[in-house]
Design a protein that fits this description.
7 helices, 221 residues, globular, mainly alpha
């Protein structure tokens, strides 16, 4: 990897990190200050969790790229695996927005404008996931991923789903407080809940596998 490419990676990582910070500040302001929600709401939505992890991975990539520029070495593989995991997560976020949220008929939830141009969602639903995807596909180069990394990328989504399904199913959190309509398990059949669980994990697994084979393909060139 050339020094020029490392500089480009550092610049894009810095842009992604700053935009994730802006998204987090806007989200915090809207939920904590403007609407008076408790602090844990910042971590309630998969969208926010995936982007917060993306923020940390962008910072790790920025530091690693600067170090690589100074030393002439490559970017740490551990950092690249972290980037792979978080890019999978934010890509799942983007796909859920496009396939599930935008078509939703609830005017407060659905719609293109609501999901891509409203406050923090401009960064969380659109700009940051798309930039992360572009960086993975065209900029960051070979990750040298292992098959086990696919399951590592799947784990955060699995953990998120299990936690929220359990919280709602055991009435620790009411259905109305679930972050997404498909997590309101008491308002739908068990079969529907299982179907949504399989769909979301299936999408996350498919994204992780596709990205793995993309990396394997360019690694073999």
């Amino acid at each position: 990897m050339t020094k020029q490419k490392k500089i480009v990676i550092a610049i894009l990582a810095a842009i992604l990190f700053v935009c994730e910070i802006i998204g987090l500040v806007l989200s915090f302001y809207n939920q904590m200050v403007k609407m008076g929600y408790p602090a844990y709401y910042v971590f309630k939505a998969y969208t926010q969790d995936s982007n917060i992890l993306s923020m940390f991975s962008a910072l790790a990539l920025l530091v690693a790229a600067i170090k690589a520029i100074k030393t002439g070495n490559g970017i740490s593989r551990k950092v690249l695996v972290f980037r792979y995991v978080t890019t999978c997560l934010t890509t799942v976020t983007f796909l859920i927005v496009v396939v599930v949220l935008i078509p939703n008929k609830n005017p407060e939830v659905g719609g293109f404008i609501n999901n891509f141009f409203k406050g923090s969602l401009f960064f969380y639903h659109g700009f940051c996931p798309i930039l992360a995807l572009i960086m993975f596909l065209f900029i960051e180069g070979k990750y040298y991923l292992k098959a086990s990394n696919v399951f590592l990328a799947l784990f955060p989504t699995f953990l998120y789903a299990i936690i929220w399904i359990s919280l709602v199913a055991f009435n620790i959190v009411p259905d109305e407080e679930a972050p997404y309509p498909f997590l309101r398990v008491h308002q739908q059949s068990i079969g529907t809940s299982i179907m949504w669980f399989c769909i979301i994990l299936g999408v996350a697994f498919a994204v992780a596998v596709i990205f793995y084979f993309i990396d394997r393909k360019r690694r073999d060139r």
